[in-house]
Amino acid sequence: MHYHHIVTSFSPLLDLLLEPEQSDERIDRLKQAVRAGEPYIEVSPITINSAIRYIELEYPSLNEQKRLTCELLDWVRVNSEHGIEYQNILEEANNLRPYPDSLAFEDIVNLVFAKEIGGGSVYLTGESVVMQQFIADKNLGLEYQDLQILDLESLPEWLDNNSLFSHPRDFIIVRTPAGDEIKLRIDPHTERYPTPVDFAYGIHTNIGHRCQGAFVNGKEVPLNTQLQNNQVVQIIEGFNKCLDRAWLEFVTTKKAKEEIRKWFKEKDIEKGIKILKQEFADLYSLNGEIYLEAARQLHYKNTRTLLKSLGAGQISIDKIKRQIELELKRKGFTIANNNVLDTLPAISGIDPNQEIILASCCLPLPQDGEIIGVVSERNLKPLRVHRQDCLNLKNIKPEHQKILQWNCQFCTIKIQVTMKNRSGILMSIYDKLTELFGRNFNVLKVDAAGRNPATLEFDVLCSEGCDL
C-alpha cells in the first residue's frame, strides 16, 4: 500500500503550524517531508475553519493573523479535488454516535474524511489509541483497514518504514537567506536538479537576468551547480543584465528557459533590425510587404522570425538582399547596378548629407530623365527637386538650378491622404490603392479616431510606367 495523504485533526494541525519554542524532532521531520511534497497534508473544511477561528482568538495582531492564516492555507489542501460529497461525510459521522468522551464530532468527521479519500491515507490525531478502539468497538475494521491512524510521536517511525510515494518527487524546495521558500521543478526528461539560475528566475525575472554568481549554504558555487532540497541560496546580482546563452544548457525550470530564450530573441531581433537599416536605411517599412514576402519566400513565418535569424547569424544579409531583388523583379521592377534602391538622386557638388525633397507640384519620378534641383543662396534649405518641364522653374533664377540625374530606375514615394471620416472610407481608399499599385505599396499610418478628418500615410514603389 502506498500512502499519499495525511489527514490531520485540529490539535496536530496547530502543532504543525505553530513553531514550538524548542526544536521538536518529530514535527521537524514531518515538516521537511511536507515541504518536499511527501506527503500532502489535507484537512476537512470543519478543521480548517476551527484552526482559523483559533488564530483569530489567540493572536490579536491583524498582521500576525494574516501571516498564520496564509501559512496555514499554504500547508494544507482542503477537500476540493476528490469528488467527495461533504454532506455525506457529516451524515456518516453523525450515524456513528455515540462517541467516547475524549472524541468530538469533528474528530469523527476527519476519520470518515480520511477513509473517503481512499488510495491509502493516514489520519493524524492526538487520540490515536482511543480512535483505534472506537473503530474496533463499532466493528468497522474491514471498512477502515487501509487507513493508518497515528499521532505525532508514532508518525516519524512510520515514515521511515513505509514507501510514501508511488512516484518520484518532481521538485525541490530551497530557501532565500530571509527564509522565503522557492519551489523549483526537476527536469522530467534529464532528471537534472535546478540550479542557482533557476532559483534566481524563480524569485523574479530581473534577478535572473542580472544573476552573475551564487552562494549555497554560505559557500560560493558555479551557476550550473545542481541544488538540493532545503538548501539556502543567495544570488549575486550584477548592475547590468549579464545573461549567457550557455545557461540554456543547464537550467531546468520552464520559467528560466522561457525568459532566457525571450531575452536573446529580442536581442537578436534588435541586431537584425540594425543590420537591415545599415543595408537598406528606411527604404522599406519593417511591417511592410517587401520584408514579409522575402521572409516567407525564405521559409520564415513572418518578418520577426527573419530578423531573429539575421541577428543570430543564421542567415546572411546578402541572401535577404538577393531575395528582395527577386521579389522586386517579379513585380516588374528593374534593379540597376545591383542597388536595390536609393530614394535620393546623386547630386554633383552637393553635400551628400543635404536634405532632399521631391517637389509636390510636379512630383518627379525615375522615368522623367533629367531633373532639376533648386538650391537656396546659402544652401541651408532642403534641396527641392522638380521635373525639368515644371512650370514653377520659370520663377527660379538659373544660378539656383542644377541639372541632376536619378541613380536608379525606381524609388519610394511617401503619400499622405486626408479625407472626411465616414464609415468605410479607409477600406475604399485601400481598395483603390490595390487597384492602382497592386502590392507595391505599404500602409505606414492610419488615423481615423473620433470625428476628425481621417489620415492615411503610405509609400509607393515607383518605376518606369508608374503614373501618380
Automatic annotation (TrEMBL):
Residues 170-237 form the TGS domain. It holds the Pfam family TGS. SUPFAM superfamilies: TGS-like. Signal peptide: none annotated. This is TGS domain-containing protein.
